[in-house]
Design a protein that fits this description.
The complex is a heterodimer of chains A (about 120) and B (about 110). Chain A has about 120 residues and is an all-beta fold. Helix content of chain A is about 0%, strand content about 50%. Chain B is globular and about 40 Å long. Classes of the chains: A mainly beta (about 120), B mainly beta (about 110). Chains A and B meet through strand 5, strand 6 and strand 11 of A and strand 4, strand 5 and strand 10 of B.
Chain lengths: ~120, ~110
Amino acid sequence: AQSVAQPEDQVNVAEGNPLTVKCTYSVSGNPYLFWYVQYPNRGLQFLLKYITGDNLVKGSYGFEAEFNKSQTSFHLKKPSALVSDSALYFCAVRDVSKGNTPLVFGKGTRLSVIA
Amino acid sequence: NAGVTQTPKFQVLKTGQSMTLQCAQDMNHNSMYWYRQDPGMGLRLIYYSASEGTTDKGEVPNGYNVSRLNKREFSLRLESAAPSQTSVYFCASSEVVRGGGYTFGSGTRLTVV
């Protein structure tokens, strides 16, 4: 079965510092991996995805994520955090071998960037 | 702007009442989904429709029914609302390609009293 773990419910970081939001996954085949962000009282917005190719994926708002197959991880990173990055972040996975099945989402990590 | 439109945005129901949440997308996507979001639980899939004319159960289908009315519209019905169905409901759509991500609606906040 497909699954995603986001081990931290909350991440706090000072403005200007680098940030990391962790995600690990479990699939039987190869993964498609996604990051979404949710601002208060809004729907989820797409940030970036890994399908194939370069393990470092760049996305919206200066975010990037690194796919690590050996560690089954897809951590979200940003070199310099902004207060406006404060939001709820979701990692999601789909097993490539299972065709067009629905994404499985993690439980989310709340990022708080402190000025 | 193109996207996914959900109605209503807010709703309060009494236990036992019924209602239908509406979702429409204008991106010509084949697949549509209904999720619920609860604190500490993340997003849980209720039902999905891989293509027009098909629907399948997700992780938490009990107490819900769906209708894929046409390619654009996918509705979620609560026949007899219960307090446990108090949640934020999101509709999403995606292309039928394996790398296709989702476009989400803005959500419906439902309270059952």
